[in-house]
Write a structure and sequence with these properties.
The chain is of the alpha/beta class. It is 44% helix and 17% strand. The strands form 4 sheets. Strands 4, 11, 12, 13, 14, 15 and 17 form a 7-stranded mixed β-sheet that branches. The protein has a 5-stranded parallel β-sheet with strand order 6-2-1-10-16. It comes from Fusarium pseudocircinatum.
């Protein structure tokens, strides 16, 4: 009898690492990735891998594969992930340590192994090599159906596949998690990170700080801090990138001078903003953001709660689990995100080796994962407090995913939410409007007062409201200028001219995307109009009923 494969959704670092580990242990598997290729979109620049991740690589990668991976990393990495130097942004001089003596540091000062600083794209390419036949790109996951003997995975753009287990390795916006944990909420750390890299050209090196050139460095710039690391690659390996400085700027969304729509700004505007914020920095540091070879992108930093839910307890979906950011998104301030994802992959393979391809293996992994992931999340909080004043987890705002709102609407927008609206685009949409969760909540649900005003009756005067669910109020709100024109207009703008639009390489693709977005919105408008007419008819009957009562003789 043929053994059904383990199905992995997502070809990020965690998914590909687990694929390699399964390959080493001869467990059948297949990876499905929505992107058309490994390089279809930018996914950050540099990542660090610490003890637990290195140990997993050493155990589960063939020796030659590990040596190749190690040789592709930064050649001058220090023996710790704590910055070698802390510089004053205004003077360029060495200043105090990041953590005061005796303070709790999220990073162990004496790791077992020298950390690996890897270019993310190079690392993923290394992890893909040797298993290309087991990875399919351009397949968009839709949903799963769990069965007694296996699991069926459904795709939006292809036939179903059968597997023994399903592993959601599809990142912070995991669609696997949306079905497994429909009420799950991410936390907004309130940090906005600007990631970038500046190539180490001769001209740049002549201006760049000598202290910062020597390794991992933190720049203190008042409310703006910058962490950087020069990345030097083995010149004997032709496929490796040119040397560059990786840097990340930590900002708070509520800091003075930070625009509310920073997440949807194009790269050139972000570059101008950063140059303005660093205008008083010492020239040897400000030059990071001034060269024409600088690339940058902005990201909202999301986090899971350290109280990771036990999705296996009493669940009907017993053959599904999550790894990496899908299971425990965390701030990069402890440099443990990639390490924890790789550790997840190794723990599942360990459990499969002991328990077999069955739900018990997943429950064993999850029990261990919740403990060590909690530790990593708590360390990320310590680093977050130091880098951008991160508040305690219980005080952070929740980011309610669009699909959760759709489900609360009793199916009215379920189909649109599943097929036409990506949760990350909704996130950009909300950021663009600078009203966060409130706007999209009002757009869909509306408010009692707006609903009453829209059809011109009082609650006490109409039986209509007692029979109408919250969906109806959302429809009336969408008829107002604020609800319909602003919400729909901003959504189209965010969808076409925001991050997704900037990734499109041709005018034709942009036009096609605009058409699709418009058609989707027109469909919603038609549905809204139909419900509005029904509401108007009900309201008219109610008014006539009350007018009739008033016109009766006493």
């Amino acid at each position: 009898m043929t053994t059904l494969p383990v199905i992995l959704i997502g070809a990020g670092v965690g998914g590909l690492a687990m694929a390699q580990f399964l390959h080493k242990t001869r467990v059948p598997f297949h990876v499905y990735e929505a992107d058309p290729s490994l390089t279809a979109r930018r996914q950050g620049y540099r990542i660090r891998i610490a003890d637990e991740g290195i140990e997993a690589f050493k155990r589960y990668l063939p020796l030659e594969k590990y040596r190749t991976l190690e040789a592709s990393c930064n050649t001058v990495t220090s023996h710790s992930s704590i910055p070698n130097a802390v510089l004053n942004a205004l003077t360029g001089e060495l200043t105090t340590k990041l953590f005061k003596p005796g303070a709790n540091s999220p990073i162990p000062p004496r790791p077992v192994y020298k950390p690996l600083s890897a270019d993310r794209g190079v690392l993923r390419q290394n992890l893909l090599e040797g298993i290309e036949d087991h990875v399919t790109f351009g397949r968009k996951y839709h949903s799963f159906t769990d069965g007694h003997e296996g699991i069926t995975v459904h795709f939006s753009d292809g036939p179903d596949v059968q597997g023994s287990l399903l592993i959601g390795a599809d990142g912070v916006w995991s669609r696997v998690r949306q079905q497994l944990l429909p009420s799950y909420n991410l936390l907004d750390t309130e940090a906005r990170l600007v990631f970038g890299k500046t190539y180490l050209t001769d001209a740049f090196c002549q201006k760049f700080s000598r202290s910062a050139s020597e390794g991992l460095t933190l720049i203190h710039g008042g409310s703006m801090k910058c962490l950087l690391e020069p990345m030097h690659f083995n010149k004997e390996i032709a496929s490796l990138p040119e040397d560059y400085v990786y840097w990340v700027i930590f900002l708070r969304c509520d800091s003075q001078g930070i625009p509310a729509d920073i997440l949807s700004k194009p790269s050139d505007e972000v570059k101008t903003l950063i140059q303005s914020l660093a205008k008083d920095w010492h020239p040897s540091l400000a030059c990071l953001f001034e060269t024409s070879t600088t690339e940058m992108s902005v990201s909202r930093v999301l986090s899971s709660s350290p109280d990771i839910p036990d999705w296996g307890a009493g669940a009907t979906a017993t053959r599904v689990t999550l790894i990496g950011d899908a299971a425990h998104a965390m701030s990069p301030t402890a440099a443990l995100g990639a390490t924890t994802a790789i550790r997840d992959a190794a723990k599942i393979v360990d459990a499969i080796d002991q328990e077999g391809l069955n739900p018990e293996a997943l429950r064993s992994y999850e029990h261990q994962m919740r403990a060590y992931a909690r530790e990593s999340l708590e360390k990320s909080l310590v680093g977050g407090k130091a880098m951008f004043g991160m508040r305690a987890f219980q005080d952070l705002p929740k980011l309610l995913l669009f699909n959760n709102l759709a489900k609360s609407c009793k199916g009215f927008v379920d189909r649109i939410g599943q097929e036409s609206i990506d949760t990350q685009l909704i996130d950009d949409f909300m950021s663009h409007l600078n009203r966060g969760i409130e706007v999209i909540g009002n757009w869909i649900f509306g408010s009692v007062e707006t609903g009453k005003a829209a059809i011109g009756v009082r609650m006490s005067e109409s039986d209509t409201f007692t029979s109408m669910n919250i969906k109806a109020f959302g429809i009336t709100v969408a008829q107002t200028a604020r609800g319909r024109e602003n919400a729909i207009g901003a959504y189209v703008e965010a969808r076409v001219d925001g991050p997704l639009g900037r990734m499109m390489k041709t005018k034709e693709k942009r036009e096609k995307e605009f058409t699709q977005a418009t058609e989707s919105l027109l469909l919603q408008i038609v549905q809204i109009e139909e419900h509005r007419k029904a509401l108007d008819a009900e309201a008219k009957k109610t008014r006539e009923k009350h007018l009739g009562r008033l016109s009766r003789p006493l």
